[in-house]
């Protein structure tokens, strides 16, 4: 039983959708299996199970990088706690453009298995299923914003907008600015914004000299001042004032 977890204990935001009596019952009944991943490359094809109703996973904690390569160019998506994913290699029904998809576990990660059995056990609480579906919609919106950012001509604009976009979800407010506590090397940033690493290194240097960003001792980035005008309504701005 050690590898079982209630879906509402796995995700506090799901627990918030239930009242006291519902929450107690869901803790007892809405159980699913848990999988753990260690940092490094993840062969997601090994996660396919004989049960054809295996829907995917909910990230409980940790961080993954999804890397999609088309004709030698790579884009990166970062996923963390609360995200829903189906990590199988490629959906041939989704696109006729062949892409190589790889996964890297950036931090020790725990996954809740989303299978048919869990769906049945969650039937008394349809709001849980609706929320899990909404997670996929929010992930698609996040990717659409990232794609729009990648269309900006200047690399420094792309980088600054991307860092603020990531901070919207992962940022932590400090007196001196907003910390983005993610493992963002120059190469990973280049893949995120669709640029070459030398161009990113140059642009990050310019942004640092301008006082827009700084790099902390642990290698993470800090944002200073207000966000660009394109995202002036960023929620973290209010937290800093």
Written account of the structure:
The protein has 241 residues and is α+β, with helices and mostly antiparallel strands. It folds into 2 domains: 146 residues, Jelly Rolls; 88 residues, Winged helix-like DNA-binding domain superfamily/Winged helix DNA-binding domain (Arc Repressor Mutant, subunit A, Orthogonal Bundle). 38% of the residues lie in helices and 27% in strands. It is built from 9 helices and 11 strands. Strands 1, 2, 3, 4, 5, 6 and 7 form a 7-stranded antiparallel beta sheet that branches. A hairpin with a 2-residue loop joins strand 8 and strand 9. Helix 5 runs antiparallel to helix 6, helix 6 packs across helix 7 and helix 7 packs across helix 8. The longest helix is centred in the middle third of the chain and has 25 residues. 29% of the residues are buried.
Draw up the topology in text.
Layout lengths: L3 E3 H4 L1 H4 L4 H10 L1 E7 L2 E3 L13 E15 L2 E8 L3 E2 L14 E15 L1 H6 L4 H25 L4 H16 L1 E3 L2 E4 L5 H8 L3 H13 L3 E3 L5 E3 L11 H6 L1
Helix pairs in contact: 5-6, 6-7, 6-8, 7-8
Which whole number gives the mean pLDDT? 87
CATH superfamily of the largest domain: Jelly Rolls
First CA to last CA: what distance? 47 Å
Q: Pick out the low-confidence regions.
A: 236-241
Largest sheet: 7 strands, antiparallel
Q: How many structural domains can be distinguished in the coordinates? A: 2
- Residue share in β-strands: 25-35%
Work out the helix count. 9
CATH class annotation of the largest domain: Mainly Beta
Q: Can you tell me the CATH topology of the largest domain? A: Jelly Rolls
- Rounded to an integer in angstroms, the radius of gyration calculated over CA atoms is 20 Å
* Percent range of helical residues: 25-40%
Question: Judging from the principal axes of the Cα atoms, what is the shape?
Answer: globular
* Second rung of CATH, namely the architecture of the largest domain: Sandwich
Order of helices and strands: EHHHEEEEEEHHHEEHHEEH
State the secondary-structure class.
alpha+beta
What is the strand tally?
Answer: 11
